[in-house]
Design brief:
Layout (H helix, E strand, L loop, with lengths): L22 H11 L11 H9 L5 E4 L15 E3 L3 H9 L4 E2 L1 H6 L8 E7 L7 H11 L3 E12 L1 H5 L10 H11 L1 E9 L13 E8 L2
Parallel strand pairs: 1-2, 1-4, 2-3, 4-5
Antiparallel strand pairs: 5-7, 6-7
Length: about 210
C-alpha cells in the first residue's frame, strides 16, 4: 500500500532508514499492483468509486506512494511521499507528487490550498505520536471546513505487511481525529462488512471527517 513514514515532514527530518523509503518498497508496490487476480479483474473499481463519491475536491494525498488513490482524485490534486522512488513513479504516471522537502518549498505547501486531506494506509506504519505529528503537520494545508479521510487496513490486511507497526481500528481513527481537531462525519468498513476483515485482506476502516474552523 501507499506510505509516508517520517517524524515531521515540513522540517525535512526524513527517516531515511525506514523500509518504506527504500527503492525495494517501491518495487514491491508496483509488483502488487499487477499480481494475482488483479491482472484479470478490475479489483480496484470499488475503491476508486469510494474515493470519487466522497466529493473531495482538490486533495492532498499524504503518503501517496505510486499514486493509486491520487489518480482517482481531481486532476489538480497533489501527493506527497517520503519515498523519492515512489514519487518518481507517480510523476511518470502524470500525477502531481512531491517529496516532503519539495512540497514544503512549493506554493502547494502554503496553508489552506486544498479542499481535503487523504491519508490512506499510512497510520498503521507509525507509532501513535509520530502519526499525530504527521496529521498536525499537513492539516494546515486544508482549508477550514475541508474534509479529512483516514483509511487503515483490517486484521488480514494488517498481517500481510511486515512494515506495519500498529493496528488502527475505527476507534483509533476517531482518537486521531479528535486529537487533530477533526469532526467525525462517518466511520465505516469497506467494501465488506466488518467481520470480513479477519479473512479478506483488502477490507478497510474508513473515517470521513471535517476540519473544524
Amino acid at each position: 500500500m501507499d506510505k509516508l513514514v517520517q517524524h515531521s515532514s515540513h522540517d525535512a527530518s526524513d527517516d531515511d532508514g525506514a523500509p518504506t523509503a527504500l527503492p525495494e518498497y517501491t518495487e514491491r508496490l508496483a509488483t502488487l499492483e499487477g499480481s494475482g487476480i488483479k491482472r484479470l479483474l478490475p479489483t480496484q473499481a470499488p475503491y476508486r468509486w469510494n474515493i470519487r463519491r466522497l466529493g473531495l475536491g482538490r486533495v492532498l494525498d499524504v503518503g501517496c506512494g505510486l499514486g493509486r488513490n491520487l489518480q482517482n482524485c481531481s486532476p489538480d490534486s497533489v501527493g506527497v511521499d517520503h519515498n523519492e522512488h515512489s514519487v518518481a513513479t507517480a510523476r511518470a504516471r502524470g500525477l502531481n507528487a512531491y517529496t516532503p522537502e519539495e512540497f514544503n518549498a512549493s506554493e502547494d505547501g502554503e496553508p489552506g490550498r486544498f479542499d481535503s486531506l487523504l491519508c490512506a494506509h499510512v497510520l498503521e506504519h507509525l507509532d501513535q505520536d509520530v502519526a499525530e505529528d504527521l496529521l498536525t503537520t499537513y492539516l494546515p494545508s486544508v482549508r477550514p471546513g475541508g474534509k479529512v479521510v483516514l483509511i487503515t487496513p483490517q486484521e488480514a490486511g494488517y498481517a500481510s505487511d511486515a512494515t506495519h507497526v500498529r493496528f488502527v481500528d475505527l476507534d483509533g481513527l476517531r482518537d486521531h481525529a479528535e486529537t487533530a481537531g477533526v469532526e467525525v462525519l462517518r466511520a465505516y468498513s469497506f467494501p465488506l462488512p466488518r467481520a470480513a476483515g479477519r479473512t479478506f485482506k483488502y477490507n478497510e476502516f474508513v473515517m470521513v471527517g471535517r476540519l473544524r474552523p
